[in-house]
């Protein structure tokens, strides 16, 4: 363990479930990397909707809880026998071993992705979780073909803007939803062909598709959109429910899928799609290429100091944000 390391780390943590006010920022001992791990000095950590479910208690966690699995920074120490990223190298990850709402975090070297020189620190922090999510949704959960018409919700959001751009790069036609006209403009700038409102989207999707419905819906909004998403699908269509920004979806009567045309429903999560080194390397090499080719631009909607993680959560939950939110130590 090198001796010129800082004496302490700072973390933002919750000691109980609750609102955004439960977060406090405190000093803690610098974490020591175990065998196979690296210690990363954080340049920026990504804020993701899942951390609001964990903070509020919708998803149970152990306390004290330091949120965050996504972060980018520089390797400053290695555990025994660690191969992979070297001290001084820039890395990014969606799979940190300790919370990334912190000045330093640990990650298994195998899960630390080396950042190419032409990718900035900000891009490196903003890309991985929402980028890898968009990548698996459209390439693995349901593989979208050129010319296909697709519905994705919350088109001005973090995942939403990346999904739209990657879908357009594939040659798909993208229909999305947003809650305000300002957000509609952002979704359009990301490339959406149609931006609808939440109240009438299912009827409008039928009109746009001349009564056929779409072959796939990517729904991260959940409770408020789920029924409309089913109504938007054509025969044998697939509903990919990947989140619940408006709340969790209640139990579903499977006969509903029969009545509506032999539909498919799946509820994926990123870790089921980053199962090994090959899968991780494939997704990240394609995402880095999309960035450097100009197919993908990352829109940073807000950068907050680590001590204001609660404000970031409040803004995210109140639908005030667009694009990616970052925390800087
Ligand atoms: P976003 O930036 O998309 O923020 C959420 C957006 O959802 C809001 O901006 C809002 O956009 C929309 N929304 C609709 N109804 C509500 C509501 N009642 N309360 C709050 N927001 C609402 O967040 P992320 O990009 O981080 O995440 C998007 C979704 O993807 C989340 O559900 C998240 O859990 C999920 N996710 C799932 C993953 C997986 O692997 N399964 C991985 C990553 C994210 P508008 O105002 O336009 O409606």
From TrEMBL:
GO cellular component, one term: cytosol
SUPFAM superfamilies linked: GroES-like, NAD(P)-binding Rossmann-fold domains
Top EC class, one word: oxidoreductase
MF annotations from Gene Ontology: mRNA 3'-UTR AU-rich region binding; NADPH binding; quinone reductase (NADPH) activity; zinc ion binding
EC number: 1.6.5.5
Annotated keywords: NADP, Oxidoreductase
InterPro entries: ADH-like_C, ADH-like_N, ER, GroES-like_sf, NAD(P)-bd_dom_sf, QOR-like, Quin_OxRdtase/zeta-crystal_CS
Residue span, Enoyl reductase (ER) domain: 18-327
Keyword ATP-binding: no
Pfam families for this protein: ADH_N, ADH_zinc_N
Region Disordered, residue ranges: 1-18
Descriptive protein name: NADPH2:quinone reductase
Originating species: Nesterenkonia xinjiangensis
Origin organism lineage: Bacteria, Bacillati, Actinomycetota, Actinomycetes, Micrococcales
